[in-house]
Design goal:
- The protein is mostly helical.
- The chain has two domains: 2-76, no CATH class; 100-311, MetI-like (MetI-like fold, Orthogonal Bundle).
- The chain has helices at 2-28, 31-39, 45-54, 61-73, 87-122, 127-141, 144-158, 176-207, 210-217, 222-251, 254-259, 265-274, 278-306, 308-311; strands at residues 79-80, 85-86.
- The chain has a two-stranded antiparallel sheet.
- Strand 1 (79-80) and strand 2 (85-86) form a beta hairpin.
Length: 313
């Protein structure tokens, strides 16, 4: 286990180094592009050249890359030209807001997907299985913006039960909890169906294994067969799928946060990209990649825990 963790840690460091090079090359390899993006399309060549010199962007690219990496390692993520403050002052608050939204949605998605997926997989071809499968496909097929508008129309405009915006501002007519209901509902509806189908597929595959038939022939109850043998093995495959949803819930909810004006990480990236805020987009991209890699490592460790045979390889 220790050797495996060391290899994964080394892979994490190498991945972040390669990604940092790619990010720097994409945004800052050509100095004039950085200055022109910040000044806008109507800037004169003289203005672009002056800003390039003031920011030190006319220095060699390797020198600027090493300086940028050093600043990042020291916790200096740069200055946001859109939010008019240090990136540190905005990015962590926005990430915290998205983590709040993601944690609530994840806490709903995981148990519900396991319950519905296992229930459908145990009775393949039954009415329950077909109903859960159809409902999962329908909810996953509906885009987030469509389900968001649909839910807002019902619960905001028609019924008036919930607020139409989730600005996380307290003290008004709506509590913070009520502002989180619709964004979480959209995320759960969009993501739950996919995870349910993956858990169901894993459960169907496990239920057809010889050791399951042997357990049944030995006279074990159906409940013991499912909980004692089938579920653990089905979760070996499902765990990776479930953990990968963390990436979507943190970095892939741009549409949800935009619809409900939620001050989250995805909305921040969209605003920064549209305003050509290079420093903020670079820092956000690094954080996203770090989350993805850490999630993969967590999935591998969970896979080893669920499958003892891998621990000795």
């Amino acid at each position: 286990m220790g050797a495996f963790a060391a290899r994964r840690l080394a892979a994490l460091i190498i991945t972040m180094m390669v990604v940092s090079m790619l990010i720097f090359a994409a945004f800052e390899w050509t100095p004039g592009q950085v200055a022109s993006k910040m000044l806008g399309p109507f800037a004169t060549p003289e203005q672009v050249e002056l800003l390039t010199e003031q920011m030190g962007l006319n220095r060699p690219a390797p020198v600027r890359y090493i300086e940028w990496v050093g600043n990042v390692l020291r916790g200096d993520l740069g200055y946001s030209t859109y939010f008019k403050t240090d990136v540190n002052n905005i990015i962590w608050d926005r990430l915290g807001n998205t983590l709040l939204l993601a944690s609530i949605a994840f806490a709903i998605i995981v148990p519900c997907s396991i319950i519905f997926g296992v229930a459908a997989g145990m009775r393949e071809g039954s009415k329950l299985d077909r109903s859960i499968s159809v409902l999962s496909i329908v909810t996953t097929s509906v885009p987030e913006f469509a389900s968001g508008v649909f839910l807002a129309t019902i619960f905001v405009i028609i019924l008036g039960w919930l607020p139409g915006a989730s600005t996380l501002e307290s003290g008004g007519d709506w509590s913070i909890a009520s502002q989180l209901v619709l964004p979480v509902a959209v995320m759960v509806l969009f993501d739950l169906g996919y995870v349910v189908r993956m858990v169901r597929a894993a459960m169907v595959d496990v239920m057809m294994k010889p050791y399951i038939r042997t357990a049944v022939l030995k006279g074990l109850s159906f409940r013991k067969v499912v909980l004692g043998h089938a579920l653990r093995n089905a979760m070996v495959v499902s765990l990776t799928v479930i953990l990968l949803q963390i990436n979507y819930l943190i970095a892939g909810v741009v549409v949800v946060e935009t619809i409900f004006a939620y001050p989250g990480f995805g909305h921040m990236i969209l605003e920064s990209a549209l305003s050509k805020d290079t420093a903020t987009v670079e820092a956000a991209t690094l954080i996203i990649v770090l989350i993805v890699v850490v999630t993969q490592i967590a999935g591998d460790l969970g896979y080893m825990w669920l499958n003892p045979r891998i621990r000795f390889k």
